From TrEMBL:
The lineage of its organism: Bacteria, Bacillati, Actinomycetota, Actinomycetes, Kitasatosporales. One of its GO terms (molecular function) is ATP hydrolysis activity. Keywords: Antibiotic resistance, ATP-binding, Nucleotide-binding, Transport. It is a peripheral membrane protein. Coiled coil: none annotated. Residues 14-259 form the ABC transporter domain. It is found in: Cell membrane. One of its GO terms (biological process) is response to antibiotic. It comes from the Bacteria. One of its GO terms (cellular component) is plasma membrane. This is ABC-2 type transport system ATP-binding protein.
């Protein structure tokens, strides 16, 4: 049984306090000379995750995401700060923690390449000492929901990327982990496979309350799965909050698309600007935090309005803007 009573005082399941990771790297600086340099991969990061939360962890390449995940699993030891998962210090009690967490790295597999899929699961059964009935139950559930029935006897090397990914997710869940770290779980998958993986994760979180920390470059993963997102860049936390709030933090704009009865000069109403005109259709940009209602009212009062719609800002653009901004303290 998981010792769920071992928790941070504020009930946080994952807790990081001013966590840092500094790597020492040696760089060639001449014929024989080597220069020592420090890379601050994670720079004083603090956050907490409550049990059952599904949180997105995003950032550009080299931002420090994988380093954070490696510290959370105990593979790497922080250079400074305090880190706890289920009350456990991961680098000190890695084996004990291993029974409570599941990890999926999209770019690498934990499955045995030359063996049928089922053999990797049997190995996990013994390695984690999962009680027989529990193992059966979890395997049956994963096989059904991840559609692995026809694949169990197939050697892993013969599986497609999407099939292998589903196989990897099942392998990470057979021992009932309370938290699942996913590093790029949909990378390289086609639309159908992505939908299957996302659907499964949603179900897992809803039915079992599994805490999920999701690292991805696919923002649709975040939009469809996570109510909260953390943005990291240059090892620092730039944003931690609701996905919707990213728009405001990125000072982004929404667009009002207006269809008029006929072609007219650019609309002139306060607090917005026309960014495009095509025949009777005009595009007006306004601050994302501002309500569209007064804008619509004044356009309707002064112009022959036929139809309109509001477009949300492109999340990619919002995040790109954030990367160029400043970190949160
Ligand atoms: N073992 C290591 N030794 C030296 N530097 C490292 C090591 N691991 C990571 N780094 C450096 O730390 C920084 C953060 O790397 P990390 O892999 O955590 O980024 P990431 O956000 O996961 O990037 P990506 O999206 O490309 O996977 C990078 O500058 C990287 O070069």
């Amino acid at each position: 049984m998981p010792d769920s009573d071992v928790m941070e005082p504020d009930g946080a399941f994952i807790a990081l306090e001013k966590v840092e990771k500094v790597f020492e790297v040696r760089k060639k600086a001449g014929f024989l000379k080597r220069e020592r340099r420090q890379v601050r991969a994670v720079d004083s990061i603090s956050f907490t995750v409550a049990r059952g939360e599904m949180v997105g962890y995003i950032g550009p390449n080299g931002a420090g995401k994988s380093t954070t995940i490696k510290m959370l699993t105990g593979i790497l030891t922080p250079s400074a700060g305090r880190l706890r998962v289920a009350g456990i210090d991961p680098s000190r009690q890695r084996t004990r923690l291993a029974h409570r967490i599941g990890v999926v790295f999209g770019q690498r597999t934990t499955l045995w390449w030359d063996l049928p899929l089922i053999d990797s699961y049997r190995l996990a059964h013994r390695m984690y000492r999962i009680p027989d009935a529990r193992f059966r139950e979890n395997l049956d559930r994963c096989v059904e929901l991840l559609e692995l029935g026809d694949l169990l006897d197939v050697p892993v090397r013969q599986l497609s990327l999407g099939q292998r990914m589903r196989g990897d997710i099942a392998a990470a869940l057979l021992h009932d982990p309370e938290v699942l770290y996913l590093d790029e779980p949909t990378i390289g998958l086609d639309v159908v496979s992505k939908a299957k993986v996302r659907g499964f994760l949603k179900e897992l979180n809803a039915a079992r309350g599994t805490t999920v920390l999701l690292t991805t470059h696919d923002l649709q993963d975040i939009e469809q799965l996570c109510s909260r997102v953390m943005v990291i860049d240059h090892g620092r936390l730039m944003y931690d909050g609701a996905l919707a709030g990213l728009h405001e933090a990125g000072e982004s704009e929404r667009t009002l698309v207006v269809d008029l009865e006929r072609e007219l000069p650019p609309i002139e109403v306060p607090s917005c600007r026309v960014v495009r005109v095509e025949g009777p259709r005009q595009w007006l940009a306004f601050a994302a935090g501002q309500s569209a209602a007064p804008l619509v009212a004044s356009i309707a009062a002064e112009y022959p309005l036929v139809d309109l719609s509001v477009r949300e800002p492109d999340i990619e653009a919002v995040i790109a803007k954030m990367y160029a901004g400043k970190a949160v303290s």
